[in-house]
Amino acid sequence: MEAQGLDWLLVPLQQLVSWGAAGAMVFGGVVPYIPQYQDIRRTQNADGFSTYVCLVLLLANILRILFWFGRHFESPLLWQSIIMILTMLLMLRLCTEVRVTNELNLKRRSFADSKDEEIRVPLRRSYLDFDLHHFWRWSSFSDYVQCVLAFSGVAGYVTYLCIDSTLFVETLGFLAVFTEAMLGVPQLCRNHRHRSTEGMRSNQVKRKSYWIRVSL
After folding, report:
1. Which of 14, 34, 89, 172 is most buried by its number of CB atoms within 10 A?
2. Does position 91 have pLDDT exceeding 80, yes or no?
């Protein structure tokens, strides 16, 4: 009788806990980047943050979303990928704006045009002509968006053609997990190259490690 009498309290409480856990899973992955974003915006210096971290997370989460079409997983993880993609685009936009502002003699490096141009000169965008030497080091945020859209379109089309293949779907899932597991490599390489961890927050490292384990 007592257990039945408490159902009116336990059921909503369980539902609330479930919603809270789902919300933490969806938004918890972007928490480490909030203080990083604020630091970059306040100091107007993005040297301590590797934009290749954004590349790794963009690739991993795009692949995870495509994997969802072949094998559905929990909705919070799907929304986590969407939120993470938006967050990484915001980080890229801020880092690009800061870098362009700080480097007065910066040449325009475009995903669509391999020729260096002054910042104020409009770019000719062509997907058939780009400089791999400057890959992911462009001066325009729109170039990053073009690259992400191009990758998403090609990967999405291939997934559409091979969605019935179990081997392909499992490989897609493996690549998503493996790519995300390599998250720390770009920042490690950047710190090793500059012999400095300036601009890298210690709590960010801890939170990244935690959310990678959750995603895995």
Report:
1. 172
2. yes
